[in-house]
């Protein structure tokens, strides 16, 4: 049996995924979580073979969960299931150690097959996204991405500085670097473009 934990903040989607996988004779849904922190607790408690997680969740994102699994040397394989059909997200998921990346509008049977494939040591990635992913590299580094995300959420340079324990000057430098790298006029345009490309 392949032990699976599901992490998804939309209750209806979580219920549907769980019901779908319970129909498979070789897959056992060990636990579910509606946010990143409770997913992390379930991972530590249950030590599943595979984690199936959304990207955007309260607490920790699916990408941050994948990074934690990688950092702690856990045997759990991670599959991201998301609505984000963006190459930037796929690249970041692979960098975080994810073995699978599927879109929520994929046929239902693809998920069970992806779980089996990843459990066997393979990868399960949406083919069109895989092609797109190698086209355009993400120009932002982790800190620039962090600062730009907070700026896009409406925080001032002072608030970002306080939250990230940086000086306001350093925050402004990161923002101007991001704006320059993305070739736009201001932080709002930089945030929009980075979101659109899947880099945030």
TrEMBL record:
One Pfam family recorded for the sequence: Response_reg
Name of the protein this chain belongs to: Response regulator transcription factor
GO terms under biological process: phosphorelay signal transduction system; regulation of DNA-templated transcription
HTH luxR-type domain location: 133-198
GO molecular function: DNA binding
PANTHER family assigned to the protein according to its UniProt record, in alphabetical order: TRANSCRIPTIONAL REGULATORY PROTEIN DESR, TWO-COMPONENT RESPONSE REGULATOR
Organism encoding this protein: Agrilutibacter terrestris
Domain Response regulatory: 3-119
Coiled coil: none
InterPro entries: CheY-like_superfamily (IPR011006), Sig_transdc_resp-reg_C-effctor (IPR016032), Sig_transdc_resp-reg_receiver (IPR001789), Tscrpt_reg_LuxR_C (IPR000792), WalR-like (IPR039420), WH-like_DNA-bd_sf (IPR036388)
Residues with PTM 4-aspartylphosphate: 54
